[in-house]
Amino acid sequence: MNVIVNVVLAVQMLTALGMIGLILIQHGKGADMGAAFGSGSSGSLFGASGSANFLSRTTAVLAAVFFVATLALAYFGNARPASSGSVLENPAAAVPAGAPSLSASDAAVAPAVPASGAAQIPTK
């Protein structure tokens, strides 16, 4: 199942990058007005109006694939065993043997209640 999640995540990222690229390539609605004054958009790669149909359809397909990938990731993210419980209910992890631990003298030095007001300002 981890492989499926990775594949869906890769598909989602590729479609997101594809949508970003296609959206940046497209002309806005106001760009057609400039063509009336001789901006020369009729000599483009896709012809006078062919790019709008191709780019908008491709963007729509990529958006649909992105939406389906997002729903699949949400489904796989919530498909966990029901017996896991809360994080707060799990026992604390054991401290490794070489890790420093608090001694009784360290606990006596640490304040029980956090400081408030001007005592929170760090000093040099």
Structure characterization notes:
The chain is mostly helical and 124 residues long. The chain is built from four helices and no strands. Helix 1 (2-25) runs antiparallel to helix 3. It is elongated, with a radius of gyration of 29 Å. The chain starts with a helix and ends in a 15-residue tail after the last helix. Pfam families: SecG. This is Protein-export membrane protein SecG. Involved in protein export. Participates in an early event of protein translocation.
Concise overview:
It is a multi-pass membrane protein. With 124 residues, this protein is an all-alpha fold. The protein has helices at 2-25, 31-35, 50-78, 104-109.
Break the fold down into its secondary structure elements and pairings:
Elements (H helix, E strand, L loop, with lengths): L1 H24 L5 H5 L14 H29 L25 H6 L15
Helix content: 40-55%
Average pLDDT figure: 75
Helices and strands, in order, run as HHHH
Unreliable parts: none
Distance between the termini: 52 Å
Spell out the key features of this protein.
translocation; 124 residues; SecG; mainly alpha; single chain
